[in-house]
């Protein structure tokens, strides 16, 4: 099954790489949306035409995720900070896909002794496009789980992911309103087993500009090991998240800087419109 899965994926990867890389594109402030739509064709074969995911391909829903979260995860996949563990079958397929984005050169800052990418417009373009896609409540797949018991467990998650599943940009904790139950179960197991959140893989790296610190990754692993160490406990907390998510989604407009129940989600400060960024505070002449 795994051999067939990866054989199909390798063929798709080659086709996507050729189709994307042969395109030339001149960027402008008004063309990020156009390029984002073009690049999304690379994602849609796994994540779906509307970004709502495909369980058979172990591809989660990504539609409507915050732009800041998408940017950070794409950088992590591209640099190998995520999806490089040999047991992360789903993550391994994202690594080459993310590397297709922005064939940047690395420039060294000799005064600081650091390296950085010269540009990341494709990551910004595709993240912005995906964040605007309408979110959709997923179909629950996992059987079992007690939301009453899960509510108690979620107290350990609330500090980062929020009382209403709204997430937290400062802590890089994603919202969970539209997150699939099967995906949450897989990720909790990966954190527990050290496949994700390994401090040796998650150190801050100025070259790849990864903003999550080892302390945050280790905290996630620690919480999972202490509070959600068994599959039964995982299913309980997931049952609560899905129950609360369904309630919040009924009043939510979307998850990108819009109303989410009574919660106002933040728009990333560095993604203000260009005209707004370049504006001055000089008063208008009358």
Q: What's the level 1 CATH class?
A: Mainly Alpha
Note poorly predicted spans.
Answer: 2-11, 13-27, 114-118, 207-212, 253-281
Structural class: mainly alpha
Overall strand count? 4
Instruction: Outline the biggest β-sheet.
Output: 2 strands, antiparallel
- Helix count equals 11
Question: Can you list the strand order of the major beta sheet?
Answer: 1-2
Specify Rg, calculated over alpha carbons: 20 Å
Written overview of the protein:
The chain has one domain (13-264): Cytochrome c-like domain (Cytochrome Bc1 Complex, Chain D, domain 2, Orthogonal Bundle), CATH 1.10.760.10. Helix 3 packs across helix 5 and helix 8 crosses helix 9 (214-227). Strands 1-2 form a two-stranded antiparallel sheet. 47% of the residues lie in helices and 4% in strands. The protein starts with a helix and ends in an 8-residue tail after the last helix. By secondary structure, the protein is mainly alpha-helical. It is globular and about 50 Å long. The longest helix has 20 residues, at 2-21. The protein is built from 11 helices and 4 strands, in the order ααααββααααααββα. A hairpin with a 2-residue loop joins strand 3 (259-260) and strand 4 (263-264). Mean pLDDT is 76; it is low at 2-11, 13-27, 114-118, 207-212 and 253-281. It has helices at 2-21, 32-47, 67-79, 89-100, 121-131, 147-154, 158-161, 181-193, 214-227, 231-249, 274-278; strands at 106-109, 114-117, 259-260, 263-264. The relative contact order is 0.14.
């Amino acid at each position: 099954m795994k051999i067939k899965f990866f054989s199909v994926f390798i063929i798709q990867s080659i086709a996507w790489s050729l189709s994307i890389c042969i395109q030339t594109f001149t960027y402008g402030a008004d063309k990020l949306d156009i390029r984002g739509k073009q690049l999304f064709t690379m994602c849609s074969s796994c994540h779906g035409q509307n970004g709502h995911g495909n369980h058979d391909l172990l591809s989660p829903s990504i539609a409507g995720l915050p732009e800041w979260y998408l940017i950070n995860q794409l950088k992590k996949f591209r640099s190998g900070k995520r999806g490089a563990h040999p047991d992360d079958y789903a993550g391994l397929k994202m690594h080459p896909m993310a590397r297709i984005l922005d064939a940047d050169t690395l420039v060294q800052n000799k005064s600081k002794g650091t390296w950085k990418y010269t540009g990341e417009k494709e990551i910004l373009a595709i993240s912005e496009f995906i964040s605007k896609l309408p979110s959709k409540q997923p179909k629950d797949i996992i059987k079992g789980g007690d939301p009453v018991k899960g509510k108690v467990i979620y107290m350990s998650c609330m500090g980062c992911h929020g009382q209403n599943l709204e997430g937290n940009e400062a802590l890089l904790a994603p919202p969970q309103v539209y997150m699939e139950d099967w995906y949450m179960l897989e990720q909790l197991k990966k954190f527990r087993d050290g496949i994700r959140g390994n401090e040796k893989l998650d150190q801050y790296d100025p070259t790849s500009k990864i903003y999550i610190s080892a302390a945050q990754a280790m905290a996630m692993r620690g919480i999972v090991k202490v509070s959600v160490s068994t599959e039964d406990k995982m299913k309980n907390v997931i049952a609560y998240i899905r129950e609360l998510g369904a309630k919040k989604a009924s009043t939510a407009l979307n998850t990108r800087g819009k109303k989410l129940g009574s919660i106002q989600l933040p728009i990333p400060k560095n993604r203000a419109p260009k005209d707004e960024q370049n504006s001055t505070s000089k008063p208008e002449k009358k």
